[in-house]
């Protein structure tokens, strides 16, 4: 699986602190939600980039190693905190674990989904929902999940506006998911 990123930067051959310096500079030009791929060879960049992202409030998604190159994925976030969503129909992560019917719709970006998603969840990134809504059945319950409940709130509203009435926003989302996860690279 090729993972899509909005922007790629090359930090191969550079040692600390240069991968972080280049990452910080690239993040300034991204908008919230965009994905940055940092290509590095410095093994210390794994811990360095994860710690830097956490310290400034961005999401460190994960790293893939291919032929001695580390591909780090980060998502630009403003101060993305878990907040009460405005879509009326919500369920908790715990309640979702006990359900046996319906479909779990993961509206995070492809790279976020690849690094860990609920087993059996269908992926349609929020930005593709309008053009891929036909893949969903209106009569089936749809449990929409993202990282914190913000994107899933928007997706649930879109689905409800399109005539889907069995739509539920899952709160607080993947940030606190305690169930089984699957990775897909």
Automatic annotation (TrEMBL):
It comes from the Bacteria. This is Sulfurtransferase TusA family protein. It comes from Metasolibacillus meyeri. Residues 98-183 form the Rhodanese domain. Pfam families: Rhodanese (PF00581), TusA (PF01206).
